[in-house]
Each structure stands twice: as C-alpha cells, then as structure tokens.
C-alpha cells in the first residue's frame, strides 16, 4: 500500500512503542485517535504489514473489527472467533513454524474453539467451525432470537471460567510470540456496544502479556461514554470540557496512552491520483519570444493538487478523484468533438475544482475570480464577500476553499503610474488556469494573449458539458 500522506514517521513512532513494550509481562494498551476517514484503518493495516516483515518476526497479530462483528450481543464470542481464525491461518503455514510451535498454536485454537462451540451450538444451533469459515455477511441474517447475550454466556459457560481459559492460552502463546490485539472501527459501533467491547478487552488483556492497539475517535467516543453513563452536562457552560474530562477518566482504565493521528500531507507525486492523471496531457507553451509562459508539467500539477488536498482526509480524496474520473469518461462518451492532445492538465484541474464545488460543497455557484482583501491581487474563491453566511458543507470543508484561495492567488498588474489594474491578464500558469473561470476579456492586452483566450474558449465547450454531467450525477 502506498503512503500517500507521508505517514511513515507516525508508523515508526508506533513501532517504537511496540518495540519498547513487547516484553512487558502485564501488557500495554494504546489508542490511535483520529476523526472518521482520517486513515486509521490504513495505519493499522500498514503497521501490521511492516511488523510481519521484520527480521526474526515473532509477532502474533489478532485483528478484530468491532463494527463488522457487532451483530453479537456478546463481544467475547466475536473476539474468540477472530483469534481462532488467526490461529488456524497461522498453523496452515506449516513451513514457517517449528513443529512444537505449530502444535502449540493448534492446541490454543482447539481450546478456544471448545469454548465458543459449546456456547454457539447451544444458542444458535449452528456449528461453530462452519460459522467461522463463512462470510461475515451471513451473520447479519441470523434471526434476532438466536443472538448470544451476556446473560446466555454467563448461564451456559461462566464468564470467569471462559476468561481464565483465554488467559491460559495467551500465556502459553506469549512464550513463543509477541502478541498484539488490534481493534479497529470501534468508533462506528453503537455507544453501548463500544463500551462493552472496551470492557471485554480489559477482561481478556488485563495484566496479560498482550499489546492492544485501538483505533478510536476520541471526541465521538467521549460523547458516547458520557451518554451511556448519564454524564451529559447540558446545564453547564463547560459541558464540553466536563464531558471530555469524564470520558478521559473512563478511558484511562483501558488505555495507557492516546496517540493523536495527524492529518498528514499528500505525497507530492501524481500517484495520489491513482492513475487518473493518465487521461490528461502535460501542457507547456512559451510566449512569442520563447520565454516560459504556461508550464503545466507534472511537478506543477502535483503541487497544485497536494496544496488543494492538504489536510483533507484520504477517503474524501478518493471519492473526489473517482467522481472526476467517472464524469470525465461520461463527457468523452457524450461525443464532444475534441482532439485527445487538447485534453491537458488544465482540464484536470478545472474538473477537480468543479467536482469540489458540486460534489463536496453542494454549491450551484462555481469558483470565480475576485479581488483579494488587500486589493493588490486576485484569488479564486467561492465567496462573493468574506464573512458572508456559509452553508453547512462550506463550513465543514472550509479548509478546501482556503487551500484553493491560497494556491490560486496572482498579483495585479500595475500601470506606468503605479496603479493596480482591475483586470485579470494571463501572465503565468496560475492566471491561465484562473481564466477558465471568467469570461473572455473584450480588449485583450496583447496579441498573444488574445490567441490564448481563443484556445480557452474552445476548451470550455468540453468543460461546459462536463459541468452539465457533474450536475446530473450529484443532483438530489
């Protein structure tokens, strides 16, 4: 998997924590804290991959997706199922492990399977081995009255006995392996279930030689914890602070440290587009005396897109690029007459901004060129006047708008008297791109610029069709 957001330093930090705590006899627990869509799942997957690639690897990693397994009323059964799956997977790779270790893994798997088989057979009448092998979508079709509840598990197999058996197996495994339990998607579970998962993990791993890594959204989880325990401080002017303090105290029972996940910065390569850039061509044009005039090469486009997407979560980026690719292909298929070499990176940048406007910001108004507050430059903006009322989408994604305004800023031209001219002239690559968002000037400043405006007007025929199709795709 490619590190699009340059997060290897963060991964190195996590690996250092694991290296430092892997021999801790009472275990260690830490959480990766990031908003939904910030890339926590990618971090966990890449971390597991890199750990397993280390020399003399002795890691045994259990990956538990709390949200995918929330069809169980009792999280313990789902956690045991994940552990059995992993042990069976590892023992199938016999060439990698010594016979003694292989036998140890098989025995641990059999012991855990005995625990879960007795429970599940009694309650659901479905053989546990078949359950574990089938696709997880099957579980969601189990009828409500076959769900396993905490009451059931305590009645059929005393919880304390079950946990003791799990502890015994973990201790035996820890003699040969460094055990890591990864918990993902906890913040997508219902509040009561998320708390139950935390408590079961504490029961399983407390004072055990296991490293726990939890992916959470601390703010969201804090609200859930406070709601479940009736600690919503609505009547206090410090409600947010008090809620967070209560949640912080509660989380300290389960995690030793919370490591914030930074937004990361997009890689300055076109790989971030996942092949989308291949549909477009570089565009480099000198002026009539051979000086650089328009230079839409790969470094410029990479810088432009990484600047626009700075701080934008990876999932949203992927959605935007997929939407652009779809709309671009539909525009090509619509039969608009245009030569392939005319489809340059200028098209890509315009299409990206069009998609952001309509698909992300839900705005009918495209970005347009306006005077900056300093009155000494022009910027590409969505807002007619600074401070005007913004929609909920514009507020949520205000960083994208700010990024675009910051990147597409060109100074005004001064006349011989030193006065700033209030007309945008095409003088460089950025002003050329901004020209796609304004009407053609009636009195071009010079002959060569007039020719450039003519090319832009021809290109706009294709882009107008693109806008129409984008409107159709996002229409509610």
Report on the architecture of this protein.
- 49% of the residues lie in helices and 11% in strands.
- The chain is built from 17 helices and 10 strands.
- It has helices spanning 8-21, 40-52, 75-91, 99-124, 128-133, 150-156, 159-174, 191-205, 218-228, 239-251, 298-308, 314-333, 345-360, 392-396, 398-407, 429-434, 447-474, and strands at 28-33, 59-65, 178-184, 210-216, 257-260, 283-286, 292-296, 368-371, 377-381, 409-411.
- Strands 2-3-4-1-5 form a 5-stranded parallel β-sheet, with helices on both faces.
- The chain is elongated, with a radius of gyration of 29 Å.
- The two termini are 34 Å apart.
- The relative contact order is 0.10.
- Residues 94-100 and 119-157 have low confidence and may be disordered.
Biggest beta sheet summary: 5 strands, parallel
Secondary structure: helix percent = 40-55%
What does the average pLDDT come to? 77
Low-confidence sequence ranges: 94-100, 119-157
Question: How would you sum up the global shape?
Answer: elongated
Number of helices: 17
The strand count comes to 10
- Nearest-angstrom radius of gyration? 29 Å
**In percent terms, what proportion of residues is strand?**
5-15%
Distance between the termini: 34 Å
Strand order in space, largest sheet: 2-3-4-1-5
Instruction: Give the class from helix and strand content and strand pairing.
Output: alpha/beta
Element-level helix/strand string: HEHEHHHHHEHEHHEEEHHHEEHHEHH
């Amino acid at each position: 998997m490619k590190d699009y957001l340059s997060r290897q330093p963060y991964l190195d930090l996590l690996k250092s924590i694991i290296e430092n705590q892997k021999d801790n006899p009472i275990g260690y627990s830490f959480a990766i804290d990031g908003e939904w869509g910030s890339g926590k799942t990618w971090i966990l997957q890449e971390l597991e991959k890199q750990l397993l690639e280390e020399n003399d690897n002795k890691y045994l990693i259990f990956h538990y997706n709390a949200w995918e397994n929330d069809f169980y009323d009792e999280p313990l059964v789902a956690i045991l199922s994940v552990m059995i799956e992993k042990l069976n997977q590892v023992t199938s790779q016999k060439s990698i492990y010594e016979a003694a270790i292989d036998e140890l893994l098989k025995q641990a798997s059999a012991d855990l399977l005995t625990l879960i088989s007795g429970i599940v057979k009694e309650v659901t009448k479905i053989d546990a081995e078949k359950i574990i092998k089938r696709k997880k979508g099957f579980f969601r079709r189990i009828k409500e009255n076959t769900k396993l509840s905490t009451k059931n598990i305590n009645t059929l197999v005393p919880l304390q006995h079950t946990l003791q058996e799990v502890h015994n197996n973990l201790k035996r495994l820890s003699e040969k392996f460094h055990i890591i339990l990864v918990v993902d998607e906890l913040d997508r579970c219902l509040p009561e279930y998320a708390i139950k998962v935390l408590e079961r993990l504490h029961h399983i791993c407390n004072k055990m030689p296991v490293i726990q890594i939890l992916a959470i959204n601390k703010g969201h989880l804090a609200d859930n914890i406070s709601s479940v325990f009736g600690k919503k401080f609505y009547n206090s002017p410090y409600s947010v602070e008090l809620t967070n303090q209560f949640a912080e105290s509660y989380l300290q029972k389960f995690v030793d440290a919370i490591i914030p996940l930074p937004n990361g910065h997009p890689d300055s390569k076109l790989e971030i587009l996942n092949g989308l850039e291949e549909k477009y061509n570089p565009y480099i044009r000198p002026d009539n005396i051979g000086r650089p005039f328009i230079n839409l090469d790969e470094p410029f486009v990479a810088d432009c897109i990484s600047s626009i997407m700075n701080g934008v979560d990876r999932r949203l980026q992927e959605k935007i690029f997929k939407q652009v690719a779809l709309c671009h292909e539909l525009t090509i298929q619509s039969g608009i007459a245009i030569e392939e070499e005319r489809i340059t990176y200028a098209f890509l940048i315009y299409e990206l901004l069009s998609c952001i406007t309509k698909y992300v910001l839900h705005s009918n108004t495209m970005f347009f060129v306006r005077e900056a507050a300093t009155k000494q430059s022009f910027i590409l903006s969505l807002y007619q006047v600074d401070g005007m009322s913004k929609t909920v989408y514009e507020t949520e994604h205000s960083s994208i708008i700010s990024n675009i305004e910051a990147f597409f800023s060109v100074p005004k031209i001064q006349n011989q008297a030193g006065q700033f001219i209030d007309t945008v002239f095409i003088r460089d690559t950025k002003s050329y791109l901004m020209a796609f968002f304004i009407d053609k000037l009636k009195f071009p400043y010079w002959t060569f610029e007039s020719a450039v405006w003519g090319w832009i007007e021809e290109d706009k025929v294709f882009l107008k069709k693109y806008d129409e199709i984008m409107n159709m795709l996002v229409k509610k």
